[in-house]
Amino acid sequence: MAKTGLTGSRIRDRRVMMGLRQADLARQAGISASYLNLIEHNRRRIGGKLLLDIAAVLGAEPAHLTEGAEAALVATLRDAASASPGAGAEAETADEFAGRFPGWARLLADQQVRIGRLEQAVEALTDRLAHDPLLAASLHEVLSTVTAIHSASSILVETKQIEPEWRDRFHRNIHEDSARLAEGAQRLVNELDAGQRKEVSLNSPQDELDAFLDKAGHSFAELEGAAVAEDDIEAALAGQSFDTSAAQALARDRLTRLARDAATLPQDRLVTALEAARKAQREAEAPDPTALAADLGVSPALVMRRLIALPQDVAERLLPAAPGLVIADASGTLLYRKEAQGFSLPRYGAACPLWPLFAALSRPVFPIRQAIQLAGRNEGAFLTYAVAEPDHPVRPGADPGLRAHMLIWPQDRLETGSQRVGLTCRICPRVNCLSRREPSIMAREG
Amino acid sequence: MERTVLVIEDEPNIIEAISFILSRDGWRVVTHSNGVDAVDAVASRRPDLVILDVMLPGRSGFDILRDLRAEEGTAALPVLMLTARGQTQDRELAQSLGASRFMAKPFSNAEVLEAANALVAS
């Protein structure tokens, strides 16, 4: 493990706490006092035998001297450096910087976190402004009312001789429109405020379905079992109030599909296969749904759907991270969304066409394994598995109703050969992307 | 010769203001407030200029413009598009569909008057 320069600060703190003089610690550790001084001021890196010796003198575990909250600080500083490559910040000396200038380092790190939050808010709002039909209607109403007031007041001011009848009419119009403007502005503020709070308004039956599934963690104990009856589906829906009957119908259809999946691949079979896979591979490795599917004798898409439906306690025990899943039909419309940490799925705009999800549509039934790097704020690394399968039994001459699935595993590090993709064009910083549909409003990459 | 403008807009107070401004300038103003039969309204009123809102009940102003440009009789008719969304993509779409001018709300009375007179000489 790499030792950070902050280790020096911890050595100094502990020495002072013990009432030990710098010269005494240096002597006992077999180094000069001046060299220890450099270490304590984070001017020299420390590791190996010397770290062990100093830790022994201080009566501390070496790991306690090299780990701590400052590690997160240094990681954030490195994130800040990589987010602005043009600035030329020396990422490799972030630990030294944090050690020598802890106040400035914390300020810079706080700013980096704040920028991230603001960019996230901008992304969400921009996505809404561009694609949310309710918000667009509210904006249109406010701007139209402003236009009406502006025009009428201009007429009253600029027209030297205006008939009393017209004057009264425009006065009345301004009065009415100003009341409408107040209401419209308040409505607009409420809608934008909802976006800021991330309690986004549910505009469509699909939105309601997504919210329902997210709330349940995409896992329904009532639907696990070989013989799920209609009553079980109603039980899973019980207590849910949907704004529209269309949303309720979508939810019922989704739960029926989940129950069918559970009957075809019972949870205990999947758990057994996952446990066997864990023994055969390194613990932290993301399970390969296509290998699991081959072992279980089922389709990869089914395994993907079942993986994300595991109860939270089972998932935490058997999976390296909570996976995301997105399902699209042949038009590219996203029908099912479960987000993975760091991979937010576009709510209104169309997704990035470079996602393996869409490549899968061009070669049905063939699974694709593709590591990806998300362009943008976090530059997250993910491993994806994608496959497109018919949604219903294939009949001669009939459309197979392809459903493309993409399972998304968050990864700690970037895999060689990763494909760089975005979320949606409007908030993607990539330049010279041949697949771009519209200009980005985010800062572009240099 | 009197020039006729057809204002296709669903906001009554905007219609009233535009009507006032243009009629004072010598225009004959006729109005229509929904998108569904707007193309028929243009055919029957035979205006010299159309002022067309983008967001209309029943049908988008872009769809209406597309139909007007596809008809021989209205292919060259001056159309001033009004929209509450001044976004580049709306402007580009309006231009690609053949809008003669594009104006984002809120606009001023003088801008409307200037555009109308520039599109149809008296």
Automatic annotation (TrEMBL), chain A:
Q: Which CDD domains match?
A: HTH_XRE
The record's annotation in Gene3D superfamilies points to: lambda repressor-like DNA-binding domains
Name the Pfam families for this protein: HTH_3, ScfRs
Give the domain of life.
Bacteria
Q: Cross-referenced SMART domains, in alphabetical order?
A: HTH_XRE (SM00530)
- MF GO annotations: DNA binding
Classification via SUPFAM superfamilies: lambda repressor-like DNA-binding domains
Question: Can you give the residue ranges of the HTH cro/C1-type domain?
Answer: 11-65
The name on file for this protein is HTH cro/C1-type domain-containing protein
Organism name: Pseudooceanicola nitratireducens
From TrEMBL, chain B:
Q: Does the keyword DNA-binding apply?
A: yes
Q: Which GO terms describe its biological process?
A: phosphorelay signal transduction system
Q: Which UniProt keywords apply?
A: DNA-binding, Phosphoprotein, Transcription, Transcription regulation, Two-component regulatory system
Q: Which residues carry this modification: 4-aspartylphosphate?
A: D53
Q: Where are the transmembrane segments?
A: none
InterPro entries xrefs: Bact_response_regulator, CheY-like_superfamily, Sig_transdc_resp-reg_receiver
What range(s) does the Response regulatory domain occupy?
4-120
Keyword Transcription regulation: yes or no?
Answer: yes
The domain of life for this entry's organism is: Bacteria
Care to name a GO molecular-function term for this sequence? DNA binding
- Name under which the protein is recorded: Response regulator receiver domain-containing protein
The species is Pseudooceanicola nitratireducens
